[in-house]
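Query structure, 643 tokens:
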């Protein structure tokens, strides 16, 4: 508080008494008082007054003396938007009207008038109370100080250059950009470059009464500081939901573990702080971000008590991304609904959590990996929960799923190159049971890369037609969404049931599929089932073509373990990767066709009886059940089958 007064008043005693009341009330409010009247020894008076007024939050002037320099002090305060209280002794002269005609706070001109001084004391207290909840509130004070710092920074640039200079124009552009962002939103919206987010967010810690909720969407790169081991954040946040890609639970253990280390440190640094973890798939699809389609990611800052929320969106000119804060009761309610929808699908992170513990909590909450006994072989009849979470279910039941798919795709690529080298013609592909498109998505980039040189030279493409069939319409929808523009441009998705829907008057060079052969083969029916399978393949495969299938197959006699031991190892692998014992047992019980499938040796004998040659049985990981099998149909004109 900047306090200035003069002894040149009609009555000195009442002045001293009034000043004692002022200083006592300021002391009760823990205000630091700079009494200018006690600093008259300073030589550079003008600079000192300017500096101290810039630092103050409130100016209190005793104006009874009518000193000319009072106009300078009050004028400076008015320009800086600093609130001013003018004290006047009763019966003293009024100040000039062009001074601003402030409302004076009068005190008695007789020190013995206790009743009048009590009235003055009460009036001063009410005035200070009103200012403290208004223009002297912490937010007002901090923003005025920040504005003063900004003003001094600009002034330093001006002082540093006596003449014209490029820095002056650069600073002009920055200042105009900032002022334009403020004008764009007015009093209810703050728009800033996203790089300012951390400082804006950290500044909230100055208000101890504000409780912040936040969503940090780690699937977007708009908050890169979370990638760091030492995030530059220090806020009064009460809880935060971290949105991650669900694949981190299955394919990104190292990355998720780094996040876990960061979250653990955050909980240890701050008290009363809760962290939740969710994926975008866990959010109710009906929930809408308050910025809707304008938002970049699902990041959200929510201050419910102040009806304020914020997030990232593109600037209106389509350029850089901006961080926008809005103060609006109705729209904040929408933000609150969205936040609660995200929180509903999240699991709370505990300091003791590691990767497997957190994954197990997430799987259990969303019942991921739970096999419903009502699910039958007819996949198209299964409920939406099966399809919506299929890619996650599959990775729970088959911990080696990604490796299985990748090895199958690699085997298909090898067979394409083998056939292409022998014929020089485009190779046509048929994928059986494309599912959500996971295998297809691994093959298509390779095809594009392989096709580029041929297209540049005007040659025939290495891969001609790529057809993928599946019996479930829901799988078609998921695959179309996943594969995007490649559908119909690079691959044709067909709703067909193998083998009823797959025409036998059309032939392909490579027929392949992953996790589909156990649907098409029935070991309980005996060798006839395997013979029929390869006979149907032969009808649709050109001479010289190949079959590639990855799946769970029974153990061969030389595997060193029996079928029960192999299934037990599979079960243990599910549990070690986060699936509960209940869910693991449920899957094993519900899928006897996978646990009691034909062995690779049995399939090799059946294939040979139909004219095929086995050229590979590649094991996946350490589990003896999972393999990629490759068979070739010899060219009828060849003297001997290729191996």
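Result returned for the query:
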């Amino acid at each position: 508080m900047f306090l200035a007064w003069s002894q040149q008043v009609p009555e000195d005693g009442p002045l001293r008494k009034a000043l004692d009341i002022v200083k006592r009330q300021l002391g009760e409010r823990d205000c630091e008082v700079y009494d200018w009247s006690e600093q008259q020894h300073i030589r550079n008076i003008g600079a000192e007054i300017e500096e101290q007024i810039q630092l103050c939050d409130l100016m209190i002037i005793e104006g009874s003396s009518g000193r000319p320099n009072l106009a300078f002090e009050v004028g400076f305060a008015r320009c800086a938007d600093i609130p001013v209280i003018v004290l006047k002794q009763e019966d003293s002269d009024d100040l000039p009207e062009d001074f601003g005609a402030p409302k004076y706070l009068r005190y008695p001109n007789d020190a013995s008038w206790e009743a009048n001084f009590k009235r003055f004391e009460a009036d001063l207290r009410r005035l200070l109370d009103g200012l403290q909840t208004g223009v002297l509130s912490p937010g007002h004070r901090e923003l005025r100080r920040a504005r003063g710092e900004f003003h001094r920074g600009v002034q330093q640039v001006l002082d540093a250059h006596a003449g014209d200079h490029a820095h002056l124009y650069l600073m002009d552009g920055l200042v105009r950009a900032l002022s334009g962002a403020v004008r764009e939103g007015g009093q209810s919206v703050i728009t800033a470059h996203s790089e300012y987010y951390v400082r804006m967010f950290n500044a909230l810690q100055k208000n101890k009464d504000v409780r912040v909720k936040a969503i940090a969407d780690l699937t977007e790169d708009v908050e890169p500081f979370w990638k760091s081991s030492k995030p530059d954040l220090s806020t009064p946040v009460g809880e935060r939901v971290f949105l991650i890609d669900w694949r981190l639970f299955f394919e990104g253990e190292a990355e998720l573990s780094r996040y876990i280390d960061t979250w653990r440190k955050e909980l240890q640094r701050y008290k009363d702080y809760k962290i939740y973890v969710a994926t975008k798939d866990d959010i109710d699809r009906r929930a809408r971000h308050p910025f809707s389609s304008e938002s970049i990611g699902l990041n959200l800052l929510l201050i419910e008590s102040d009806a304020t929320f914020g997030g990232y969106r593109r600037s209106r000119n389509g350029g850089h991304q901006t961080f926008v804060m809005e103060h609006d009761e109705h729209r904040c309610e929408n933000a609150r609904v969205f936040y609660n929808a995200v929180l509903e699908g999240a699991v709370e992170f505990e300091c003791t959590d590691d990767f497997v513990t957190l994954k197990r909590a997430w799987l259990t909450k969303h019942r991921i990996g739970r096999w419903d006994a009502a699910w039958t072989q007819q996949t198209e009849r299964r409920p939406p929960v099966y399809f919506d979470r299929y890619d996650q279910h599959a990775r729970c039941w088959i911990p080696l799923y990604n490796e299985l798919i990748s090895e199958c795709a690699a085997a298909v690529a090898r067979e394409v190159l083998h056939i292409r080298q022998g014929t020089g013609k485009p190779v046509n592909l048929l994928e059986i049971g494309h599912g959500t498109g996971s295998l297809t998505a691994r093959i298509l980039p390779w095809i594009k890369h392989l096709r580029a040189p041929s297209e540049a030279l005007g040659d025939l493409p290495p891969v001609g037609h790529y057809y993928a069939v599946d019996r479930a319409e829901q799988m078609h929808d998921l695959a179309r969404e996943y594969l995007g523009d490649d559908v119909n441009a690079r691959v044709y998705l067909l709703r067909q049931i193998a083998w009823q829907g797959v025409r036998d008057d059309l032939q392909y060079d490579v027929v392949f599929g992953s996790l589909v052969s156990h649907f098409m083969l029935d070991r309980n029916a005996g060798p006839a089932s395997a013979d029929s399978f390869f006979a149907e393949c032969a009808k649709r495969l050109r001479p010289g073509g190949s079959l590639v299938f990855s799946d769970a197959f029974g153990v061969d006699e030389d595997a060193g373990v029996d079928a029960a031991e192999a299934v037990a190892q599979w079960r243990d692998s599910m549990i070690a990767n986060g699936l509960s014992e209940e869910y693991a047992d449920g899957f094993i019980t519900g899928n006897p066709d996978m646990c009691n499938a034909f062995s690779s040796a049995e399939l090799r004998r059946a294939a040979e009886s139909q004219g095929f040659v086995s050229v590979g049985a590649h094991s996946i990981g350490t589990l003896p059940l999972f393999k990629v099998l490759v068979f070739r149909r010899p060219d009828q004109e060849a003297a001997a089958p290729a191996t």
